[in-house]
Amino acid sequence: MNASDPIARLDVLGVQVSAADIPIALDEIDRWVRQGHRGYVTLTGVHGIMESVRDEEIRRVHNAAGLVLPDGMPLVWLLWHGGFEYADRVCGPDFMPALFKHSQQAGYRHFLYGATPRTLELLQANLKRKFPAAEIVGAHAPPFRPAGADEDEAVIEAVNASAADIIWVGLSTPKQELWMARHRHRLLAPVLIGVGAAFDFHAELVRQAPRWLQRTGLEWTFRIAMDPRRLARRYLRNNPAFLAQIAAERLGLPRRGEVRNSRRAS
């Protein structure tokens, strides 16, 4: 596709997934910054799709994103099947260093939001070591509870005062998507990107699956092995449900789900 063309999308169980790869996503972010466009980016895999199937607000949040990047080989395979042979996986741990490397010449200013103070400390040190010309203008680790109005306002003011171009949000799905959607209108930075566990990977606190395993679509087995108490239920619930929903759609059966109206705290 030509860089000036609009990025096509494919409906995956009601979520409009962008037919993109890392170079296409980088070009789009360049355009946002250059034109002063203010949007947010979700990196979505099976977990994000199934959260959207079950929760109407999460689905709306995904579909309001400027980019819904395919973070997972099942979505890439569906894009290929839909005729978008150029699309490829865009996962947070790959996209974050790609954009930091790109930003060394582009001059973008980065703000890190999420995780813990210790994780942010390690993350900043590693990013500065790998990308010495990239500019990190601030970081904030939110509390593990809903922020009060005054506290939330102080963070927004601090982020805006940093004059960041890109705000990286590492809160896990769907919390980070909801946070970006609810704060987008108050933040001056052109780009918000939700990258989940990328903060932990690049802080070198969590091991990433080998590249060959990622490309098979079986990265989830590695992640369960690394953190079974937190992730086993997610994958063992979502993966079969996703396959069943896709199969039903292919057979023309009514889409089934547990759709509810979200009342999540920000």
SSE blueprint and pairings:
Layout: E1 9-12, E2 15-18, H1 22-35, E3 39-44, H2 46-54, H3 56-63, E4 67-70, H4 73-81, H5 92-106, E5 109-114, H6 117-130, E6 135-140, H7 149-161, E7 166-170, H8 175-183, E8 191-194, H9 198-202, H10 211-216, H11 219-226, H12 228-250
Parallel strand pairs: 3-4, 3-8, 5-6, 5-7, 7-8
Antiparallel strand pairs: 1-2
Helix pairs in contact: 2-3, 2-12, 11-12
> What gross morphology would you assign?
globular
Tally of individual domains: 1
First-last Cα distance? 37 Å
Relative strand content: 5-15%
Number of helices: 12
Give the CATH architecture: 3-Layer(aba) Sandwich
Task: Give me the count of strands.
Answer: 8
Strand order of the largest sheet: 4-3-8-7-5-6
Give me the strand/helix succession: EEHEHHEHHEHEHEHEHHHH
The proportion of residues forming helix, as a percent range, comes to 40-55%
Q: What is the C-level CATH assignment?
A: Alpha Beta
Mean pLDDT: 92
Give the biggest beta sheet: 6 strands, parallel
The CATH topology turns out to be Rossmann fold
Gyration radius over CA: 18 Å
